[in-house]
Design a protein that fits this description.
The protein is an alpha/beta fold and 337 residues long. It has 2 domains: 2-173, Rossmann fold (3-Layer(aba) Sandwich); 192-335, Nucleoside Triphosphate Pyrophosphohydrolase (Alpha-Beta Complex). It has helices spanning 13-21, 33-42, 45-48, 58-75, 88-100, 114-126, 137-150, 161-173, 230-242, 279-282, 300-304, 309-324, and strands spanning 2-7, 27-29, 78-82, 105-110, 152-154, 192-200, 206-211, 221-223, 251-258, 267-276, 292-298, 328-331, 334-335. The strands form 3 sheets. It has a 6-stranded mixed sheet with strand order 8-6-10-9-12-13, sandwiched between helices. The chain is elongated. The N and C termini lie far apart (50 Å). The model has no long low-confidence stretch (mean pLDDT 86).
Length: 337
Amino acid sequence: MIVWINGAFGAGKTSTARELTGLVPDSVLYDPALIGDALRALLPRKRLDEVTDYQELPSWRRLVVETAAAVFAEVGGVLVVPMTLLRQEYRDEIFGALAARRIPVRHVLLAPAETILRERIARREEAGQSDRPGGHLAPYREALGWLTADAYVVDNGGLTPGQTARRIAEAIRTDTAAVCEIVQTPEPTRETVAAGVLFFDAQDRVLLVDPTYKPDWEFPGGIVEAGEAPARAGVREVAEELGLVLDRAPGLLVIDWEPPCRPAYGGLRLLFDGGLLPAEAAAQLRLPGPELREWRFVTEQEAAGLLPPQRFARLRWALRAREQGTVLNLEAGTPVP
């Protein structure tokens, strides 16, 4: 498993992690900051200038997961990870990808009082150990809501790193620090077929959902299982995700061939018309916390800012097909002549 020690700059993550590896059998320290250092050396200056933090780089987030999986396969046991992670979507993406590899994560938050944090940060800034003077506490405060709800919280303001590590080790041993329930299906090993279902409100806005395990919004739906009809897969996924039970198989709007783009394998993506969702039915929608964070009705223009380009192209043509009462055959989001 992974013990992810989170917290603000100056919270004592690395010193606690070192102590923890001495207490937890078969554990090793894995610091994702090393991946950030490597990317600073590898990536062109132009690309680095486009971000303010290496965590904004998709390559960093993917390499954090891939490296963790490789180290885990090499040595097994427990990886102790000291790394500040304050953006919930990044937490979801990384922990979800680890869950897809069947690597459970125990999420721990070191949360000393802010007065203590300020003193520690000031000392480190005076020593020239900060690349963001004065900019550490605000994002931490903003993240505290979801962090405290998600992680096992340790107030280490009056504790030494050794005492903090012992408290974490005991919480792991007794399952007080539970596994973080970010859920994702295993990554595909070949092309897949996926079925999405579009629902509309009285203003003809389309329903999108926000998965916990990846950064972009999605259509309700999911992967078609072996031997399952795509429309029935859409019906099943909608019931599992939203608690919405359809009494009929929805009609097809588009079928889109998504080409492979490493590391993804691509495959067939189908969108079906779930029709009008009355306001009273929308009010009854439920979200499975480990999988979906939010749902929202959006206009086509709003969807352009939430969906990745190829997925938005698929939606755009599905809306045209719905208007015209037809079915469109797409390749990479473009109609086949």
